[in-house]
Task: structure prediction
Amino acid sequence: MKRFIFLIRSIVILLVLLKTVDCYCNELKAGVSKNDFNIVLITIDTLRVNNLSCYGYQRNTSPHIDSIANQGITFVNAIAPSSWTAPSMVSLFTSVYPINHGVVRDTMSSLKANKKEAISDKLITLAEVLKRQGYNTFGVVSNLHLQGKFGFSRGFNHFKCLKNWSPAPLVNQAIDLWQDDIEKSKKFFLWVHYSDPHHPYHARNPWIGQYTSTALTQELNLSEKKMGELKNLIPLFKKDSQALSNLVALYDSEINFVDSYVGELMQKFELDKKTLIVITSDHGEEFLEHGNLDHGNNLYQETIHVPLIVKLPHSVAKETVEQSVNLIDVMPSILHLLNVDLPKQTLGKSFWEKEDLLSEVPEKLIRREALTNYNFSELDIRTVSKTMITSEWKYIYNYQNNTEELYKIKEDAFELNNVAMHNVGQCQKLREQLSDWVSKAKKYPFKTQSFLPSPEDLEKLKQLGYIE
Result:
């Protein structure tokens, strides 16, 4: 009997040892165990996908971001839920569309307005979920639309909104103040929002000299002009391609500038190790593709097609994903990797198909073949429009003047040929689907918070084009 008991105990011990070894091997194979990695989310304001070198741009605007892309996954068809900051960023952090969360209007654009929409208490943010999972959470932003009073500080142990759309060096300096706390954290979540590509575009050295001459950029004093003043130059930009090229050169030098500080951040905190890194943008920027400048004017690709780069906690070979995704998919994708239940509100879908993703060798990582049959983006600021994008079509409906546009998005990526008049049946089908989505959308009761901008803020808002 004693021998039998001893034998059973020996078998049990052996099985436990084998399971331990197996788990250990899986951790070695993946380079990190589940729930044991840091998370860094970098959002770069007003960053066009077409002007990044890792997306094929002819200028080397983003070498540090490119190096991250070379170790990870580049999504080439990522869509922002709106074409300006607040609605897109609320959607990213809650995984619901603007029509659901209600943060859609820019009351900063009115000098008389003293209220601004804020994230609903009924919605759970990504930072709140991660904090509950034991993450030490840090957030530094440089855009007044992302202030803590509007709900963006929820779930953060440490949160700082810098004044006046502060440049990247000041953003990194704010993070440096938390260096000890970050390094002592068992695991941390860091959100960094840079604003440098946002107008006004400064001439950043040495890059501006590679793209155009200083004399040409100074000739029209483009860096000092408010957005309203730049828009007054649209007739000139349409006639003078060199003048427009100078404006784009300024913008590109800003991308290089912020990219260099992304590289500094990576190196300082060694974020290439045991870290999930997500880099994206809230929206793009127009340079007369449809006759305008700035953003928040429409829902064309130049303002809603955004970069999205994901580096897993263990390095993988560079991979490109063609499938259409939306910023609302970021939150569920992060939580999927952590094996955390999604909040009930979640409308986005995880990028990943595998349930045990981190224990898979890189060669076996599989993305979902199709996250959704359609992609939505919407705008309720200078105009009221919604768009629905399928694998073949892009449909835009303007609710102010009841007009519609239809583009064969694969063949006409720049949306130059509106084929709505020649595809009445297709328009009707997509209009009905859009109407169905709108009618069934669950609406959360957003809050309003007082916003009394300082004289300094008002001047900056005028410069940025939020106030005429």
Notes: The first helix runs from residue 2 to 30.
